[in-house]
Every structure is written in structure tokens, then in C-alpha cells.
Amino acid sequence: MTTYLFRRLLQAIPTIFGVTLISFLIMQAAPGDPVQIMTFSPTFTAADRVRLAHELCLDRSLPEQYLVWLVGDLRGECQMRGIFRGDFGESFFERRPVLELFMERVPATLELTAVALILGGTIGLFVGVLSAVKRATLFDNIARLFSVLFDALPQFWFGLLLIMFFSVQLGWLPVGGRLPLNKPDITLVDRARHLAMPSFVLAISWIALMSRFMRAETLEVIRQDYVRTAWAKGLEPSKVYFKHAARNALVPIVTILGPAITSLITGAVVIERIFSWPGMGRLTVDAVSSRDYPIVMGSVIFGALVVILGNLLSDFLLVAVDPRIRLQ
Amino acid sequence: MSFQRSIRLWPLTLLLFLLACQPQTIVETVEVTRMVENTVVETRVIEVAGEEVAVEVTRVVEPTAVPVPQGGHVIYSNFADANTFNPVLGNDQASSDVYSLMFLGLTQLDPFSGSIVGDLAESWDISEDGLTYTFHLRPDAVWSDGTPVTAQDVVFTFDAINNDAVASPRRGDFASVASWAVVDDQTVEVTMSALDCTILANIGTGIIPAHVYGSDPTAIPENPENTAPTVVSGPFQFQEWVADDHVTLAANPTYFRGAPNVATWTMKVYADQSAELAGLLAGEATYTSPVGPAFVSVIEGQIASGTPLSMRKYFDNGFTFLGYNLANPENPQNGWDDLDGDGKYTEGEPPLPQDPHPILGDLAVRQAIANSIDYQGIINQVAFGQGGPIVANVWPSIEWAYNTELEPYTQDLDKARQILDDAGWVDSDGDGVREKDGKRLSLSLMTNAGNEKRENIGVLLKDVLAQVGIEIQLDFLEFGTVVQRLVGQTYDMIVIGFGGGAPDPDDTNLFSYINDEPGAGFNFASYYNPVVEENLAKGKAVAGCAEAERAPYYHSNQVEIYNDLPASFLHVDLENTVWWNNLEGIDPNVWSREYNVQEWYFTN
User: Per the CB < 8 Å rule, is A56 touching B167?
Assistant: First the structure.
């Protein structure tokens, strides 16, 4: 397993560099210039813009700019540092190492995503299994209706609706942010109040997907002989459904876990904006708008890592839930 | 504290008789309380474009509860986060909102008039030739660690701004400064290379503590003080920053104007203006500025229904305009003749005649457009009534420089048609679009996609210009693309705006040929007028910089720009600040919201 892990990680290195090269070229091909955006004010002179472009190495050729991003300015004429220094280079706008900016925000994104994953996974699993067991009942019909609804609902609209109702009208939950302000002792309840709406809105599509998959897989599994055997042994229905049936139904679902994590993290970009959640979302979106290439490139690496690690996690979980599978 | 008085502005009535073809009256009653040392009764009358925009203030003085309540947390909502807390590096409004409460400059703006007044500098002398400024620092100004603010701090800050390794966006402010030096601990001397009346506004950058940043300015960009300052000179000191969530500052007990009454000031970051509004109405934020024009009626409705909120409105220092490219977009050229071939403007290089725009190069077309625009309709329908007319390139909040003699353009479609007819633009094929010499009167108009206000202005313009035979192709583009085309001078027309502008009317960067440089300069209209050039040069170089002596140059420039039409100035925004009534003392104005933040207090 260690060899497998090592090999996969080694394979990831050229993948990541390939992704950065492609995204660098796409960013450069897009119209827009970071210096012009940064100095979009009548208070700057033409000379200011020329000087700033030089100081940020943006007056170099494309291959040179990519090299600067990798290894820094070897000529020592501009102030930019390369990612090999270990900090993903320096943001044009924030004038700080990209890694430092990420470290301030990644925990918030991971927290939101993890809670949404757990929330969506748990609700989806239970609803899916129960739908299958109570097939064609009122519960099943309502569950399927909500599954379609949750898939179709635009998350930004649903989020705003929840804010208007729970925050502005009822005053129960905060409009946005991760933690309460000016409160010395922050409790688990405080955290939960801030997480409730964004994690739920982020989770709804995952709930929809998970419940549909679980329902279909469980329907398949509960007809199998070993389930009949479990009934014959006189086991409790909960044990039959959730221990014997659900575990086997989970095997194909594990394969969608990796893509689901990727999708949740990218989906968090939108949710973070709506709920003013201080994660990677605002930083990434603003960086693309302002052509802050070092942040965009760093985000691309982060995204590529999430995809690679998500797929690795799927592989390992598959082994865990299905002992017949071996990693080679 | 016994000398302190509460001035209860009760009632404060604003009568705004807005000029334009359809004069409109806005009557507002606002109650404001603030703490001041002296009683001031003030009546102000502002004239805009020769018409009445009167602001009458009646103040009734009442005794204040003594002592003033202490403590509480002020939360200001914003939809952008700060990037840095170092004024040497800062280049955005959100950062400035925060660091200006921690680091004071030599000078600041008078909150009511925008004139330059002292901050860390108690006073300054100007030499007879106008080239040497001697600033005298306040003896009572101290850093929060007890160290006095000295001339060394000022010189260190100026050195940092002008150091290549720092790459400060403030460096252009010092273009006409030759040198700066410490005279003694309390005195700094700044020597100019040329007369420049904008220097007092430019030199107001926050001063950073030399004894904390160390002797090497080149290390500034990586200094942890940039994101967590430990020593400050302003009313608040740094407490906490959670990126993209909030910045909290705590009252600075050593602030020389007196420690703030409130315990903390926080800037809470929301996703956008609608989230800000939700945060305000939910009681999370204490005040916000501005509430977007589309939401003003929501606040007014809340106030009318008894919600304890207050709103103050004032004209912004900025404008929205329709910009014209006077040069051929297929052949962008520098506005100056590059005699020495160095690729950049060198002093003395003469203007280079431009290849004119095939359609907009004709003044008659620009005049026809200017006479077609429904200015009041744009204010009413697009800006939701939250705007006022503007005649040319100086915003009315710079009262001394604003030309009140000029009448703003108004819609007159018959006149527009006549101008085009006279100029030979006629619809010969009956397709509704005029032609001349085989050229169709068809233009593209761009603005940044997602900016609903500008998009709507574009739609209104397309509609109204079709009525006079001008065809408009609307291009709503991503912001970066818009900026690239604009600065690259490869566009026809643009709807764009600037806000939060400088308190000085000098706009050399927008209208002088020396800044007509495709890809870099901001004279993206490729405008050149020798009278304007002369006025810009003379207006900046008045010895002593008396406003009354400078004003005629800027009045004259407005006339030139009004007639030449390198742009049609559509309106100036009516900005606002909204706050919960339990916050007392807040007195927001166009030039400063927080000038008296140390006097704010909560009643409950």
C-alpha cells in the first residue's frame, strides 16, 4: 500500500506542473493586465504603471514570466519570488506569500466542506436506505421529490432565502462569517450557528446525489440472498438494513466520493461568497478578476491536489469497505 | 469634561433643489448627536451649476450626560477586505478604511470642505518661492508604546515610499518632490523640484514608526507589522484580523486627541452590498457606508416605520461618465512626440497630432450625443434618485473649484438631430442610421459586465441614441477586458465611473497629453487642448496655493472640457451612511466618516 501511495504521489508531480502550465497560458491568453487593474484610478500616472510592471516582472516575455513564477527573478531586477522558495510566490496585490494567504483561509474551507460532506453523507445515506426500504410510500415519494428539488435549486438563491428568513426575519442565525465578533469564549454552539446555513446549502446537492445512489443500490442489495439469510437469522431490521445491506450498497458509492469532495470544495467557492465565509472562495475569485497570477496558480495547484487526494481517498476507502479489492 | 457640550442637531433639514430640466426637491429630517469641545452653529449653502442646492442646518445645543458612556463595540460593514495595514503599501479603499484609524498622516482633509488641515503636523510654513514646506509636528503626538512621533518617522516613511524594493503605489505622489530632511525632532523640511499645489493632499499618507520597522526600508514588504501592527499613532490599535471575515481594532489610550469612548472598532467583511444590508438590518453591523442606491428605499422604509436607524446623504467625490475615444482605435498612439526615442514621456516633448476617430473625432457627433442623453432619467431610473447633475470634470464636493456658471447638458433631441444634419450626417438609405461619406453612424459602447447600473445606463443610451439616428453596439465585458481596451485605447465609447476621488481638482492624469500613452496612461480619450494644458500647469503652480487664486484655472478648464466633450459627465452619486441610533456622535461626511471616531459612544 505504501508503494502504491508513493507511486501515485510521484505521478502527481508532472500532472500538477502540466496543470500550472496550461492554466498559466489560459490566464495569459485572457485579456486583462494586472497592473492596469491594480492602478485603475486617475491618481496613477503612465510612469507609475510602467514602473510597477517592471517591479512585478510583468514586462518580461511569457516564458520568462513562467520561469519567474517557478524560481524567482534570477536577474534580481524585480521583486517577485518563485514557488520553489516554498511559499507559492508572492501575490501582486496583497504583496504577501501566497502560501501565507492560503494558510489563513484553507482551514475555513476544509471545515465547511468537511461538515457539508458529513452532513450530506449522513442525511443522504439514511434517507436513501429508508426510501429503498419504504419503497413507493409517502416517505419515499417525498424523499425523491426533495432529491430532485435539492439538485435543481440554485444554491446562491437558496442561500439568500435562508439568510432573509433565519437571519433578518427571525434573527436566529448570523448573516455570515465563521465566528461571532467580540466574544471571548467561543463555544461549539457558536460555531454550529455560523456553520448551519452554509454547510446545509453546500450539502444539498450531495444529499440529493447520495440519497438517490443509496436508494438505488439498497434496492439492488436487499434482494440478495445474504440479506434474506440475515432476516432468517432473526436480526433486527436496523441491523439488516444498515449493517448488512448498507455496507454493500456503499461500495459503488465510495467511488464517487473523490469527485464529490472535489465538487464540494469547488462549490464552496460560491457558498463562501454568499455567507461571507472566510475561505478560499473570495481569494480565488478576486484573484481571477484582478489577474493576480500567483494566487490563481496557487489555487490551481491546490485544486489539483484536492482532486488527486480525493481520488486516492476513494481508492483506500474502496479497500476498506470491500476486502476483495487490493491496491496494486 | 465639563466644557464638553452635546450638540443635538434637532432638526437638521436638508433642502436639495436639484437643478436640471425637471427640478426636484428632496426634504430630509435627520437627528444627529455628536460630542464637540465647542458649540458650533453652522449654516451652509452650496450652489451647484448656478442653481440652488441649499443645505440649511439648525442646531439646538443641549447639555450632555456626563460622563459619556464608555465601552461597546462598533461594527462597520464592508464588502471588501483589507490587504495590508501598512499605508506605504496600501492601494485599496478597504485597507485605507482600517489603517487610517491606526496611522495618521502629516495632513488630513477637513471633513466638511475637503480642505487640507493638519493632523500629525500642527502647522507648516511655505517658503516665498513656494518650493520648501516646513512641517511642525504636534508635540503631544505619541506612538502607542509611548515613544514620541518624530521627524525621523516622517522621513523614514517617505524614504520607504520612494525605495525601489518597496514598490509603493504611493510613489507617484512624490513626483514633484526633490528631497525631504529632518530639521529637528519636531520639524521636517520637504523641498519641491517644481511648484505643485497637490503636494499637501498627496503627502498625507500615514506615517509608520521607524523604531518598529527598523532602519532598512527594503525589508518593509516582508515585515509582519504590515498585517499585525504593534505600534500605532491613531485612535485605534490593532487587535485581530481574520482574513476575509473581520478586522478588530481596540481603543488606543495614548491617542493625542483622547482615547475613544468605545472599546473596539471592527470592520466586518460581507460578500456584497445586499449581504451588508442584511447584516445591518439583522443588527450585526452598527453602521454601513454606502448602502447601494437600489437599497436606499429599503432603509427609508425602515426609518419611516420606526426602526431606530439614521441615514445621512452627501454627494460623492466622483462621477459616472460616458467616455469618448477621440483617436482612431485601430491606431492608438502616444500623445507626445517621442523625440529622444526612449519610449516614455520626457519633459519638453511636444504633443503629437493624433489620428482622429473616424466618427467620434467629429465634435458634432459628440455634441449630438451630449444633447441626446436623458441625464435626469438616468439619475431617476438607474441611480434610483441617488445622484445629482455635474457639469464637467470637477465634482461639486470641491466647492471652491466647481464651476457654478455652467449649465449642465440636458436632453434636447431636436437640437441633437439638427447638429447632426448640419454636420452632414444624414440617413440617406432610410434604415434609421445616419451616414456621412459612406460611414455609418454606428459605435460600440462598452462597460463592465455585472455592474447593473452601468449596464442599464448603456441600455438607456442605446435606446435614446437610436432616436437621433445613432446606432449603438453594446459590449458588456469582464472588468479586466474593459480596462485593457480602455487603457489600450482600442474602444469607441465607455460608461465608467470613479469614486472616492482626490480633494484636488488637478486632473493632469486624465486630460493632459503627457498621460496619453496606450497601455499605461489614463488620458484614454487622447484629449489635447493647449488651453487645458496651460491651466493645468498654472493651477498647480500657484505660489502659496490659495484656493481663490487657483480656482479660475479650473473654472476655465471645466468650460473647455464642457465644450470639447472628451466625455459626457452623467451624474455624481449621492452617497450615504446608515447607522443604528444607539451609536451617538457619528457625523459622516463626504471627506471623512470617522474623523471624530474617538467621540462616538453608545447610549445602550
Answer: yes
The neighbour count for residue B129, using CB atoms within 10 Å, is 9
Phi, psi of A182 (to 5 degrees): 50, 40
Asked whether residue B462 falls in the same domain as residue B524, the answer is yes
Nearest Cβ partner for B480 among A31, A171, A178: A31
Res A239: pLDDT: 85
Could you say which of A95, A175, A278 has the minimum Cβ distance to residue B84?
A95
Instruction: Pick B165's closest partner by Cβ from A79, A104, A163.
Output: A79
The answer to whether B269 contacts A278, with C-beta atoms less than 8 Å apart, is yes
C-alpha B32, offset from chain centre: 25
Q: What is the largest CA-CA distance in chain A?
A: 85
Choosing from B269, B285, B308, the residue where a domain stops is B269
Task: Please indicate if any CB of chain B lies within 8 Å of the CB of A180.
Answer: no
Task: Specify if B510 maps to a domain.
Answer: yes
Q: Which residue of A has its CA nearest to B518?
A: A46
The C-alpha cell of B86 is what?
Answer: 501598512
Residue B535 maps to a domain: yes
Find the CATH number of the domain harbouring B225: 3.40.190.10
Closest Cβ–Cβ partner in A33, A46, A278 for B243: A278
* Amino acid occupying residue B378: I
Give domain status of residue B366, yes or no.
yes
Which pLDDT score, from 0 to 100, does residue A327 have?
65
**Co-location of B379 and B473 in the same domain:** yes
- Put simply, the chain A residues between 86 and 125 with a CB less than 8 A from any chain B CB are 93-96, 101, 104-105, 108
Please choose, from the candidates A275, A85, A278, A301, the residue with its C-alpha nearest in 3D space to the C-alpha of residue A199. A275
The ipTM of this complex is: 0.79
- With an 8 Å Cβ cutoff, is A63 touching chain B? no
Q: Spelled out in words, what is the top-level CATH class assigned to the domain A100-321?
A: mainly alpha
Asked if residue B283 is part of any domain, the answer here is: no
Distance (Å, rounded) from C-alpha B377 to C-alpha A118? 53
Among the candidates B10, B27, B62, a domain finishes at B62
Q: Is the dihedral of CA A296, A297, A298, A304 positive or negative?
A: positive
- Containing domain of residue B170, as a range? 73-269
Mean pLDDT by 10 residues, chain A (328 residues): 79 84 85 85 82 84 86 75 75 85 91 92 90 91 92 89 90 89 86 94 91 89 86 86 80 79 82 89 86 87 84 80 71
Query: Given pLDDT bands bounded at 50, 70 and 90, which one contains residue B431?
Result: very high
Residues of chain A numbered 286-315 and touching chain B (CB < 8 Å):
289-291
Which A-chain residues 12-51 have CB contacts (< 8 A) with chain B? 30-33, 36-51
Distance CA B234, CA B227 (A): 16
Residues B158 and B54 occupy one common structural domain? no
Contacts across the A-B interface (CB distance below 8 Å): 170
What is the domain count for chain B? 3
B508 and B442 housed in the same domain: yes
Residue A138 near chain B (CB below 8 Å) = no
Q: Select from B551, B527, B548 the least CA-distant residue to B539.
A: B551
On whether both B8 and B110 belong to a single domain, the answer is: no
Q: Hey, what's the cell of A160?
A: 439568500
Based on the fold, state whether residues B240 and B111 are members of the same structural domain. yes
Residue B264 sits in the same domain as residue B190: yes
Looking at the DSSP bridge assignments, the partners of residue B46 are B53
| Nearest-CB residue to A163 (from B221, B278, B502) | B278
Whether residue B24 is found in the same domain as residue B80:
no
